[in-house]
Amino acid sequence: MSIVAMPADPRRRFMAVTNKANAELAGELATRVSELIHEYDDRIPLALAVGVLRIVESELMKESA
Questions:
Q1: I need a surface site. Which of 1, 10, 24, 43 has the fewest CB within 10 A?
Q2: Domains in the chain: how many in total?
């Protein structure tokens, strides 16, 4: 299995661009991520989904450094 880094798009940096409070935005993001993960129910094991999240986390951290 090879891991391909997602291309860094400088236009898609994490910035607050709305008037929503950070907690509200974090809740919205968590809900969307959870819904996306559930789209893969019965197709991949939960451990694989969590692993993918960790890979994405690592890539995002590298991009923001």
A1: 1
A2: 1
